[in-house]
């Protein structure tokens, strides 16, 4: 038994727990030629530098704004789509639409970004050609800071909205049809049925998903942002994850970027635990 | 679902609902249709009129061009290799760890489970993990795309829960017949878990094919780039890429233009579209919407 367990356990130790211990780097001044153990301790110096760095405000604002937009524009989308799908009576039609809208979930972020580039580029991109025919002008979607956040939200909705309906459709399938029959007897129209029966039946699902979202407000998805990020839109696009990559991997400031990453992980952990606690308060089973 | 009143607003709503959902469904796949069409169009046509769904002049020039250089083929090969070997590794690692953990009596089981669950909540982050991979000399090796992601804690727990729910009588019967632990896993548990393992194999495989982040972090050598990294290079960094590619392969002199970009996107998408019916069959059963509880 333990022999079977060994490879997996070793994996968790080497790739999960050694890096966790490696966050101590954040409190050292890592010098490659000295190595992990010989490098000097510097305490909270990297954190002090990070918090007083003007970039910190930019990162925090960008990260939180993206999360906020996500919450306002993306979060309700799958709920709405699920409600609309739920009103469909022709099973074949419903299944076909479901089949179509789940597809983008499985497409890689690189493909999504590539599609975005090819469709929106000012050099013969189909969207800009259409705009040009109408207005005689072109819009610089890919480099304009004004377009970065909308593009991210549109990408997310296109990719994940369909997939997001699954959990709501599952909850909706569990609603007892007799409730609707009783409501019709009482003269409730479709809107009232939706308001009084359908929505309450998915309320707990909505609450738990909302709470869980709270747990990862600092996670904006590295790949999606990295792929749309460029020097021209950096002021609105750079977030914690991409910043860690840039200073850590590209510029080799290992200790400093570890400190930035650690700050993000700790806040994230607190948020997840807080969210879990809240979920339990609402009588949900919580995440763990 | 029950029959509802037929009212004018209701009918109006139904009609617009069907229209809207049809449109939404179309939007989900239209980009792919356009890209496929564009990849078979001539460059001249793409510059003249960007908007079409069926090219006037059908040409496979973009694909011929791609297949005439080995740069993209090589990255396709890297992706296929990582997907196949990586998925095998995922399955072996996940099963061998999930099986002992499914035993309620195993000493130390709860400690290990808690270690696994904690690793889902908190991690060392990008840089310390990168340094571990570097210390293990895995940089610029395809193993860096396989081993650091060998087990997904989430999948591990779902597989463990599945093993736990197998009827204990089977195990007892097998033991009475003198079956060893390994024999039990190999002859009883695995055959019973085939559908579940097939599902995880599919999801792991899609993950490997789509993986961009690990390759970005760990692979600098363009010869070992998987398709996703190559795709980004060609589509998004095309100015730089033209130079890069021609320096890597003298036959790649022409800068990638629109139809070639589209063709590369198609190549990156096709495998996913091919396995999609199987994926859909599995997630429709709800196998993955399980709980994480131990």
Automatic annotation (TrEMBL), chain B:
Write out the GO biological process terms.
Answer: transmembrane transport
- SUPFAM superfamilies assigned to the protein according to its UniProt record, in alphabetical order: MetI-like (SSF161098)
**Main subcellular location of this protein, as a coarse class:** membrane
Give the range the annotation lists for the signal sequence: none
Q: Which residues form the ABC transmembrane type-1 domain?
A: 76-279
Q: Where in the cell is it found?
A: Cell membrane
Write out the entry's keywords from A to Z.
Cell membrane, Membrane, Transmembrane, Transmembrane helix, Transport
Q: Which InterPro entries match?
A: MetI-like, MetI-like_sf
Give the record's GO CC terms.
Answer: plasma membrane
Any stretches that span the bilayer, and where are they?
12-37, 76-99, 111-131, 143-163, 184-206, 260-279
What does the sequence similarity comment in the record state about its family? Belongs to the binding-protein-dependent transport system permease family.
What is the protein name given in its UniProt record?
Answer: Protein LplC
The coding gene here is: lplC_5
């Amino acid at each position: 038994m333990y022999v079977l367990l060994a490879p997996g356990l070793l994996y968790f130790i080497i790739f999960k727990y050694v890096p966790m211990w490696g966050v101590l780097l954040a409190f050292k001044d890592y010098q490659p030629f000295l190595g992990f153990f010989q490098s000097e301790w510097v305490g909270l110096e990297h954190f002090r530098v990070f918090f007083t760095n003007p970039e910190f405000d930019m990162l925090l604002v960008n990260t939180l704004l993206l999360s906020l937009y996500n919450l306002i524009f993306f979060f309700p989308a799958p709920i709405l789509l699920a409600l609309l799908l739920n009103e469909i009576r022709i099973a074949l039609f419903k299944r076909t639409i479901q089949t179509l809208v789940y597809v983008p979930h499985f497409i890689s972020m690189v493909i999504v970004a590539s599609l975005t580039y090819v469709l929106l580029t000012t050099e013969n991109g189909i969207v800009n050609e259409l705009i040009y025919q109408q207005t005689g002008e072109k819009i610089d979607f890919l480099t304009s800071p004004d377009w970065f956040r909308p593009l991210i939200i549109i990408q997310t909705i296109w990719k994940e909205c369909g997939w997001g309906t699954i959990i709501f459709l599952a909850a909706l399938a569990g609603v007892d049809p007799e409730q609707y029959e009783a409501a019709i007897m009482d003269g409730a129209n479709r809107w009232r049925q939706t308001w009084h029966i359908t929505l309450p039946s998915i309320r707990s699902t909505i609450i738990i998903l909302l709470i869980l979202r709270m747990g990862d407000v600092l996670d904006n998805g590295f790949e999606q942002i990295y792929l749309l990020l460029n020097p021209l839109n950096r002021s609105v696009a750079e977030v914690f994850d991409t910043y860690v990559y840039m200073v850590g991997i590209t510029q080799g400031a290992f200790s400093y970027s570890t400190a930035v990453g650690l700050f993000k992980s700790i806040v994230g952990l607190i948020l997840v635990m807080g969210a879990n606690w809240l979920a339990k308060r609402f009588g949900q089973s919580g995440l763990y | 679902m029950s029959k509802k009143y037929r009212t004018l607003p209701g009918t109006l709503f139904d009609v617009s609902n069907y229209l809207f959902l049809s449109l939404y469904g179309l939007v989900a796949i239209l980009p792919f249709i356009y890209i496929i069409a564009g990849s078979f169009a001539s460059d001249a046509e793409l510059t003249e009129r960007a908007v079409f769904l069926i090219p006037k002049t059908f040409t496979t020039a973009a694909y011929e061009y791609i297949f005439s250089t080995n740069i993209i083929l090589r990255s396709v090969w890297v992706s296929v290799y990582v997907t196949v070997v990586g998925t095998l590794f995922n399955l072996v690692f996940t099963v061998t760890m999930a099986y002992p953990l499914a035993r309620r009596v195993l000493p130390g089981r709860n400690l290990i489970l808690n270690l696994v669950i904690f690793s889902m909540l908190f991690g060392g982050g990008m840089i310390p993990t990168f340094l571990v991979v570097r210390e293990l000399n895995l940089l610029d090796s395809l193993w860096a795309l396989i081993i650091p992601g060998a087990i997904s804690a989430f999948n591990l727990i779902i597989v463990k829960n599945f093993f736990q729910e197998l009827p204990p009588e089977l195990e007892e019967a097998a033991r009475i017949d003198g079956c060893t632990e390994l024999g039990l896993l190999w002859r009883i548990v695995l055959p019973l878990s085939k559908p579940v393992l097939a599902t995880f194999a599919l999801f792991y495989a899609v993950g490997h094919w789509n993986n961009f982040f690990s390759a970005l972090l760990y692979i600098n050598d363009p010869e070992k780039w998987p398709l996703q990294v190559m795709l980004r290079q060609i589509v998004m960094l095309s100015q730089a890429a033209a130079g890069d590619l021609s320096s890597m392969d003298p036959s790649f002199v022409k800068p990638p233009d629109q139809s070639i970009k589209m063709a590369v996107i198609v190549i990156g998408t096709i495998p996913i579209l091919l396995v999609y019916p199987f994926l859909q069959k599995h997630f429709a059963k709800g196998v993955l919407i399980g709980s994480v509880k131990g």
